Amino acid sequence: MIRRQFDFEQKYQDFMSKLDQLKDQAEGMDFDLQKEMVELESRMSGIRAAKYQNLSAWERVLLSRHIDRPGTVDYIDYLCESWIELHGDRLFADDQAIVGAIGMFEGRPLTIIGHRKGRSTRDNVRYNFGMPQPEGYRKVHRLLLQAEKFGRPVITFIDTPGAYPGIGAEERGQAWAISDLLMTLSSLRVPVIAIVIGEGGSGGALALAVGDRLLMLSNAVFSVASPEACASILWKTPDKAEEMAEVLKITAPDLLEQKIIDGIIEEPVGGANQDFETTAKLIKEALKRELDILMQQNIDDLINLRYARIRSLGKHFINETVG
Amino acid sequence: MFKNPLGKKKYIEINVSREELMHDVAFPGKYTCSACSSSLSEGELLVNNWVCPRCSFHFALTAGERIMALCDEDSFEEFNAGLSSSNILGFPGYAEKLVRGEQETGFPEAVVTGVARINGHKIVLGVMESRFMMASMGVVVGEKICQAAERAIIEKCPLLMIAASGGARMQEGMVSLMQMTRTSAVIGELHRQGLLFISLLTNPTTGGVLASFASLADIIIAEPGALIGFAGPRVIQQTIKQQMPERFQRAEFLLEHGMLDMVVERARLKETLGSLLALHAGGK
Questions:
Q1: Measured between beta carbons, which residues in chain B are less than 8 angstroms from residue A209?
Q2: Rounded to two decimals, what is the model's pTM?
Q3: CATH of segment(s) B60-279
Q4: Same domain, A159 and A42
Q5: B188: which residues sit within 8 A by CB, 6+ positions away?
């Protein structure tokens, strides 16, 4: 059976609360266990830190989908002194699975776009579990051109299982909506920073993951298709998803090694789901640092560098055999 | 067929005469139409462009047959024939699939690119070979498509891509997904240069190939009945658990929904492409 829950944290918390009980008990005793208790506590916290340093790919998949994991709107709230959401693609509808906004970040207006998931059943239905329809991508397209018009840098947050596979989505050209974004982002004349904050699922995630920098939170994943889907298609069973997650190399360290991402934002021990403040602060610092660099560049140089970066993706893997 | 150690021009050879092909009609039953179940001979199909004479079902063409059917005689010159893939993630079974793909198709990868002429008009042509791992797009397929677009920019001539694909090549993980970004960026550059890009979607064109270069053309043509979509029909069925509309994701359905410029039957393809190229003569 595949594990559906990241259960380490629960076991750890259970143990620690038992330890607290023991501590209380030990206080009434006429011998001193203080030293042993402190030792055990520090040993446990060492074990926890080590665990989070060495998560398996599948454990990261579970963490990236954790119900308490902060989402796009949480980060926009934290980063921006003020922000205003903009709606609609001007063609068909407003797709709630993607949020688009203008916000003030460190005295600088930004266009911020990201996938939106819900935490309750009601919100999940409203946001379609973070799976956009074509109108979601077309809203992004509109907001990108708007950002370019006003010279506003663009930040994107990626957190989706994938683009929605439905009849309407196909009728309205899901593929066309996505390819349009890939092409537009590759030459948009403002700095673009993309951050994978949770689940990066396939083309529906990729559509927002093109820019001058592609960063990832350390427990986020980015995959060509979900490990379950890949296991179903290639190994004819979704039960091998854990193993598939490992061989697909979908974690931030794997993708840094493959030169697909530019950097990792290290989450605190316990993950973003347990420590939003620290995670958000680290994102803020990374954004400020990268924006300062990108804003100083001449826009033509920036576009050329971005193009060269995109053009070289995966190129180091190519062999030429003389035949 | 495309091996070329001496660097000479390479052409595809057809060594059967039309008479011989017609003769084969006398021995029907070698092929069965997967749409109407008619029993058909190879000769009958060859003279009819591999289209079922009874129900117009379009059989899959190999890359070689496609080139032969569309390009002016002896005009196709392949480039990047030597680019081949390796098992970059050490994915179980991938190396064997690459070997089998090459054995079955004679090509080291799932796309063939070259310079050719159609009705005298010079073009850069890329043809995906669906028998090679369902023409899924890995880093080498992506690279060859990028270089085809760049070649069109250098030669200042139109680009024609004949797509057929199951999508991204999962065995290469994220590197394969990134080929969507790469090909889309290079097609963007081709558009900025003012060059014509025609995309022909054949059965099936799905997933990452449709959601990148294949849907970014100035003119998008599809073959009749071709399955064209972002998500596969099985995935959609599993997600929504409803009956699909009739002819869902077929070329005619997409034309109706405004996603294609035209659906053109195979017999009229060369003529149609020739007219489009003439209207954009000079590469613009």
A1: 181
A2: 0.92
A3: 3.90.226.10
A4: no
A5: A183, A184, A186, A187, B216
